[in-house]
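Now produce a polypeptide, keeping tokens residue-aligned:
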Amino acid sequence: MNLRFLLVVLLVVLAGCATVHRASEPTAPVVIPEATWQQIDQDIDAASLSSKEIVKRYTRSAMERWREMVYQRTETDFIPWFTSYWTQQWLSAKVGWYKMSSGGEVDPVVNRLTVYLQEQYHERVLDPIAKVTDPNVIMADAITLYLQTLDAHLVEIQQHYSAPQDQFDRRLNDIPAIALAPPPARNASLYQIAHAEPVTNLPSYQALIQRVRSANSGAGAGLSDAGISSVAKRAGEKLEGEIATRSVAGAVAAAVGRVAGAVISVVTESIGAVSNENDRAETEVQLRKSLGDAFDKAWLGLIENEANGVMAGVYYISGQIEGSLSKNLPVAPEPAPLVSPLQGDQIPMQGGQAIQ
């Protein structure tokens, strides 16, 4: 019995030693051929292009929704405010004050009126809409969508080639995505931005957003400026003429006495109100066209401009990634030049002869 027990113990010990020996044997690393890595790089490049196209469609749709909101609020708020009788009276007073303080020069008056109208447009139209969405929000959402879509492709690529995760991650870490150093924290690799949770906490991402926003001076920058400038110029000229008319009426009223003067003042104001109502429809048409033309031009710039538009962040990151990958991709051989069947500079002629 004791002998049998000892044999069992001996067999268990020997089996354990064999197991430990086998476990301690190092596993041979998986070697990915360079040609496979080049194919992986090509797939990452294609994934970046594909993700960018998806984001383009999203940003255009989002910007079209934003444009409709701006059009609607311009129509229901800014245009009625600007063309109303009392607003015109208030603007006349401001133009008069601007003219007095500028020494009678026209350009400073128009410039100051332009600034005031731009402030009103932002306050009445752009700022309320910005609480819902604006180009800055759309730009940040575009970057997030691009990174999410690209990351999904990266997972598929890694699984397709059965690349070890650590080797694949090192490959991604060698691909720059943001390069805004110094300081070094303003740089980020593809691996870092694809795995950051959230990406908005990365100093490199924050630096990129700040760079784009500095280029376009914030949400809606320039959307109304050109249109407001032309509106302000016409309004300034019109209001200056009305000020001159009221000044003449005031002088006559002062000369004829208090009662008659009061009647003249009331009649003058009534004529001004009627004139404003008669001109209001035409003014609304001009204002709508000026603002619409300027807005459409600026809106298209925000869609297409790769440096400061709503796709600027995506274009920057994808440009860094694709530019880095292009250095690793094999160069396609140039096609051989076509060789003329003619020898030298001979030009064939009819009859079998040739001109030398």
